[in-house]
Structures
1.
Amino acid sequence: MEHTKTELFNFADSARNKNSPNPSINLGVPPFTHEFPCVPKDVWRYLGIMFDRNLTFRDHVKFYSTKSVSAVRCMKSLGNSNRGLTPKQKRLLYISCIQPIATFGLCCWYKPGTRAFKSNIKMLRLTHNQGARWITGAF
C-alpha cells in the first residue's frame, strides 16, 4: 500500500449526523500505523464527480460552475457586440463547449427535492447568465 494512492472516505448516516466525527483508521501495517493513520478526506473525487459526506455535491457544482464561468470569460475575446462571431456562432460554441462543463455529473446531483438543490442551481445559473450576456452582446 502507498500513502498517496490509498484513500478513506466516510459518508454521514443522515442529515442529523453530518457533524459526527470523521474517524481515522489504524491498519497496523506500514505505511498506516499508530503514528501515521489513514485519515479520511472531506471531499472524494471519483471519475470526475466530487462526493462530500452528505452527498450534497456542493463542491462538485462549485468546481465545475467556476470552471465554466472562466471558460465563458475567456471566450469573450472571440467577439463582442460590434465585431467577431455572430450570435448564432456564439450560441453554438456555448452549447458545444461550455454547457457540457457546467452540467457534468448532472445525473448525480440533480435531485429537486433535496435541500442542496437550490444552492446548486444558483451556482449554475451564474454560468448561464454570463453565457447569455456574451451571446447577445449585452453588458
2.
Amino acid sequence: MPILDASTATEDFEFSYLFPADQLSDDLHNGSGDATSYSWVTSQGNRVTLSGSFTYPSGVVTGPVTMVTVNLSDNASDDIVISSLVGMTAANFLSVHATIWLNLFSGQDIFIAAPTVHSDYAGDRNSAGTVGGDFFYGNFNGGSFHWYGDLSVLVGSATNSYSGAGDVFIIEGALGDVSTMVGDGSAIQSGDQLTGGDDTFQISTTGSQVNAIGDVDDVFGFAQGGNDTFVLLGTGAAVAVGDFGTVGYVLNNTYGLAYGGDDVIVEQGADTSNFMLGDAQFFALGTLHGGSDTINGGGGNDTIFGETSDVLSTVNSASSFVGGNDLLIGGTGNDTIYGDVRDFLNLAALGSVTFGSDTIYGGADNDTIYGDYRSGGTFLAADAGAVDYIFGQGGIDTIYGNGGADWIYGGTEGDFLYGGYGSDLIFGEAGIDQLWGGEDGDFMWGGDDSDTLHGENGADWLYGEAGMDYLHGESGDDVLIAGSEGDFAWGGDGTDTIFGEDGDDTLRGEGEGDVIFGQQGIDTIYGGTGGDFLFGGTEVDTIFGEEDNDQIHGDEGADFLYGGIGDDLIYGGTQADTIEGNEDNDTIFGDEGADNIDGGSGSDWLYGGAQGDTIYGGSEADVIFGEAGSDHIYGDAGDDLLWGEDYAATVDLAADTFHFADGWGNDTIYDFTPGMDVLDFTEVTGLTALGQFTLGTNVDGFAFLTFGSDSVTFYGVTEAQLLANSGDFVIN
C-alpha cells in the first residue's frame, strides 16, 4: 500500500491529524489496533490512505502525522465521509493532540476536541467553491484551541468565488489559554469573492479568553458576512466579532468591498467582561456595509461595537462606509457601546459615510455609549449619521449620540447625555442628569429630578420637567420650559422664549429680544440685552428689563417691575405693584391696584390706573396721570404736566394730592379741583406760610403761584378760586 507524499500532490494540502495510529485504527477500521497503514474508498469513489508517516508540503510546520485525506474530486459533497469495511462514517473525530485542516469544497464536518489538549481545527481549504457547514465541539479542562470553520487565507489575482456555509461552535469547560474561533475565513485578497456562512457560537467556559469571529478577518477584495449567532454562557472573557476584522488596502486599483451580516451576539453567563463587535474593526479603502446586528452584553463590563471601530488612512482613492441598523444591549455591567464607527484617521479623500440607525440599551450599571462615530480626525463628519435609539437604563451612563438625529434616554440614575450633530431628542428620565444638545436644534427633557440642560448650538427646545432644573439655551433662538419646581433658566445668545411654569423660577433672557413668561410661582425675571417682552404671571413676581427698550407686564400679583436702561413700556397688572422706570424715557401703566410708580430719570409718561396710586415723576420733565382713585402725585424735579384724573372728560370724585419739594420746577396741574384736591408743600424748605407765595394770573386767565424759581400753574382755575379755598394748601 503506497505512502502518500503531499509535497508532490496535485491537490492542495488538505489536513493533518495528530492521532495515535492504533487508536485511530480501532475507531475507524475495527482492526487489530496495531496496523500502521490502512486504505478506504470514499463515498465518491476516491481512495484515502492511512499511513504511519507523511511528507509535508512546503511551508507547513512538520510533526508526526498518522492520517491524511485527499479529496480527488472537487465536486465532492462531503469532506471526510470515509467508508470502512463495515460502512462506518469517520466524520466524528475525538482528538487527543489535534491539528486538522479540511478542504473548501467540503460538506458538513464534525470536530470534537479532547478535554485537556490544545487543538487547531480548520474546516476547509484554500480553493474556490462552496464550503460546508462544520460542527465544532470542545469540553475543555485546561486546554485551548484555534478553530476555523472554513478557509484560512485566500490570495489570488484571478476572480474566484468562495461561499461559506453555517458553522456551529460549542465551547464548554475551563480554558487554560486564549482561544480563537473563526466561522468562515481569516483573510481574502484582491480578485476573490467571499460570502460567509450563517455561523453559530455557543461559549460556556471559565478561565481564559475566547475570541469568536463570525466571518472573514482581513478583506482585500469582496466579502459578504453571514448572519452569525453568538451565545456567551460562561464566566470566561470573550471577544465576539460578527463579521470582518480588517478591510485592507486595494490592490491593482481594485476597491475592497465588504458587507456585514445580520449578527446576533448574546452574553448570558456570569458577570464577565466581554468585547463584542457586530461588523468590521478596521477599514482602509473600498466600501464597507455593516450588517443589522443584535448584541446583548449581559453581565460584566462589556465593550460593544455595532459596526466598525476604525477607518484607517486612505491613499489616493475614496472609501465609503455604510453602517447597519444595530440593536445593542449592554446588560448589567459597566459597558462601553459604540453604535457605528469609532474613529476616522487621516482620510485624504473620503467617498461617503452613511451611519446606521442603531438601537442601544445600556443596561443596569454605569455605561458609556456612542451612537455613531467617536472622533473625526482630519475628517469632520458635521452632518453625518443616521437616527440612533439609545437607552441608558440603570447606572450612571455617559451617552454620545454624535452624528444623526438621535433619540437618547438616560435611565434611572444621574446620566451624562450628549446629542452631538443632528437634531436630537434627549430624555434625562430619572436621576440628576446633565444633557448637552450639540450642534443642531435639539429637543431635551430633564426628567424627574434636578437636571442641567445645555442647548449649545442651534434652535433648541429645553424642558426641565420635575425637579429644580438648570436650563441653558446658549447659542441659537431657543425655547426653555422650566417645569414644575423652582428652576433656573438662561436663554443665552439669540432671541429666546422662556416659560417658568410651576414653581418659583429665576429666568434670564440674556440675548437679543427675548420673550419670557413667569407663569405660576413667585418668579424673578431678567430681560438682559435687547428689547425683551417680559410677563410675570399669577404670583408676586420681580422683573428687571435691564438693557434696551423692554416691554414688561406684571400680570397678576403685587409685582416689582424695573425697566432698567432704555425706553421701557411697563404694565403693572391686577394688584398693587411697585414699578420703577429707572433710566431713560419710560411709559408706565399701573393698571388695577394701588400702585407705587417711580419714573426715575428721563422724561416719563406715568399712568396710575384704577385705584389710588402714588406716582413719582423723577428728575426730568414728566407727564403724570393719576387716573381713578385718590392719587398722590410727586412731580419731582423738572417741568411736569400733572393730571389727578384721566386727561379725558371723565368724572373722578376722589381727591388727589399733589406733592412738591425743593426745586420742583415749573409744573402745570390740568385738573385741579378747588375745595377737593390738596397741594402739599411740606417738603419745601423755608416755606411756612401761604403769604410767602406770589400769586398771579397768566395771559390765558389761569392762576399761578411762585416760590423762588419754582412755580405751579392751575389750568382752568382762577386766582380768586385759589384764594377762596386756602384750605387746599398744606404748609409746614
3.
Amino acid sequence: MSALVSKSTPWPARIALAAGLLALAGCNRKNVAERMLGDPAHELAAARCGGAGQMLRPLIIEWPATDRASLESRLRRGLVVVRYEGCVVEVLRECAAPAGSYDYLGITRKSDQITIRTTDELYANMPLTAVTLEAKLATAGELNVSMALVGNYEAARARFDISELQGRCEGATHVVAAAQVGAFAFYTGAAAEVGTELEVEKVAGVGARSTASREILNHDGDADACLGSTPTDTTPPAECGALLRLELSALDGIVPTCQPGSVWNGSACVTNQRAASEAQQARDQAKATKRAENQEIAWQLCGIQMQCEAQRAGVLPPEGDAYQRQMRACTAMTSVMINDYTRPQARKCIADAPSIGCAAFETCVMGPDSDADADADPDFGEPDEFGEPDHGFGTEPDW
C-alpha cells in the first residue's frame, strides 16, 4: 500500500484513499425550405395539413393535368425528390437521388370510392389542395372520388440521407417511394351546381348509374381500359396509368427550419425557453444517473474492502448498525473519487474480486500513482461531470 496508508489508519479512510488511487493511464443543404411566412391563410392551412409533411400518402387526383403529366414523365426518368411542407408538394426537378428507378407491380384490380363532406375529411384526404377546395365543398356539400386501381410504381430503395442527393436540392424533404396508378374521376355531389353529367360506373366500375347532375372537377384514365389489367402486368394498360396517390419517404439527416424564437429538439419545433428547459432537465437526469451509479460502485468497493479488512484482522466483519455506519462513511468518501476515468477500472476490480483475492483487489484499486495520473490526465484538476474538481484516483481530496 501507499505510504499514506498505515495499519493504524481506519479502514474506511484506507478504502477511500485506495479508491482515490484507482485510475487508468491516458485520457487520455440546406435545411427544410424556408416556411412561407407572412401568409396567415397558408399558415392556418399548413397547420391543418400536418405542419411539415406528416401525411405520407397524399392523393393527387386534384392536381392540374400539366403538373400530373410532368410528374409522370419524371417518374420514368428516375427517383423523384420533393419538398413536402404543410399543404405543398413541390417536385425538385434539378435534384437527383443516387441511381435508381421505379418498377411497376400489377395488382388485382380494385375500385375505391371516397366521399368528402367536411373540411376535416377534405384536409385528411386531399391536403395538397384542400385550401383551394374548401369553397367548392361548401357550395356543393359533398365531393367524391371514384378510382380504379391497377398497380404501383415502386422504388427499389426508398430511404436516403439528404447528403446523398445531387444537384439543386435546397428544401428537399422526401423522395417519392411509390405511386398508385389507374383511372379516376373527381366530382361534386348532388348538391353541386349543375355541371357535366357523369356516369360513375364508367369511371371506376362501381356498378350504379348516377342520375344526378355532377360537376367533374378532374379526371384521368379510362375505366374501361383498366378492365384488362392483371396482377402479372409489367406496365399499366394503355389509358389506365393515371397517377392517383403518392407514397413519400422522408429523407434522413434533415434538421427542419423553425420559426424565429424556436429550435428543433429532435422531434418538433419548440420555443427557445422550452428547449433550454429540456436541455437542463436532460443534463440533470444524466448527472443523477451517474451519481446513482457512482454510489452503487462505491458501496460495492467498500463492501469488498470490509471483507478484506476483516480477513486481514482475523475477525468477522461488523453487522447491523455498525456495518451500515461504516459502509455509509466509506461510500460517501469513495463515490467522490469515481468519475468517467475511474469508473471502468472500478467495475473491473469489482468483477474480478471473487477470483483474485484481497491483495490483488487492492492492487487493482490502487492503480498508477498520483503523479502518473496527473501527467496522464489532461483534465486533472478541471471540473468533472458534476462540476467538481477532478482529483482523479490518486490524490486525496480536501474533505
4.
Amino acid sequence: MRLAAFGLLGLLLCGAATAKQSDRSPPVNVDARSADASAQPNGISHIKGNVVITQGTLKATSDLATIYFDAQSQVKRVVLTGHAHIQQLDDNGNLMTGNADSIDYDVPEGVAILTGNAHVKQVNRGSASGDRLVYDTKSSTMTAQSTSDEGRVHLVFKAKQQPAKSAPASNASAPAATTTAPSPAASTPAPAPAASAATGN
C-alpha cells in the first residue's frame, strides 16, 4: 500500500475521552438472516443478510460478515462488507459513527480499519474522510490514510465556541415628564363686571 506524502495523519478526535470502559468485557452478539456459524477453535463463520454485531455500546452492521475465532473459540476478528457501519459511545456519552465499503475489526485490540469511501464522525469533536481510516475504540484515536498519490484525506475539526457577549446595558430611562397643573386663578375665568342700572330722566 503506497501512502501519499501527506497520507499518514494522526488525528485525535476526542481528546482525553475514551471509549466506554464497559464495552471491553461483554460478549460479542451477532444477529443476521443466515449463518454457517460454528465456533470451532481457529474456525471461520460466514454471516449474511442484515448483519448486526454488538458489544456493549459498540454496534456494527453490514450486508455480509466473516467472523474469525482464536484457539479458545473466542471471536478475534470480524470483517464487515457491504454498507459497513460502526458506532460507539465514549465515556462522555459522545457518539462516534463510521461508514466504509468494508470494516475489519480486531476484537481483542479494539481497532477498526475502515477501507473504501471511509468516513468517521465524532460528535462534538470533528470528522475525517479518506481511503483508509484506522479507529482505535479503546483510546478513541484515529489515523487517516490516502492509498494513492492522488488520494486525499479530509479533516474537519470543531472550533471552540466563543462565549456569547453580554448585551450592552440599556440607557437609563428618561425621567417621566411632569405636568404642572394650572393654578385655579389662571384657569377660572374672571367674573363679568356688573351691568350698570339705567337712570331714568
